[in-house]
Amino acid sequence: MATTTDIKNGLSIEYNEQLFQVVSFQHVKPGKGPAFVRTKLKNLKTGRTIENTFSSGAKINVVRIERRPYQYLYQDEAGFNFMHSETFEQVTILSDLVDNADLMKEGQMVEINYHVDTETPLTVEMPAFVELLVSSTIAGEKGNTASSNALKPAILETNAEIMVPMFINEGDLLKIDTRDRSYYERVKK
Question: Who has greater pLDDT, 182 or 189?
Answer without folding.
Answer: 182
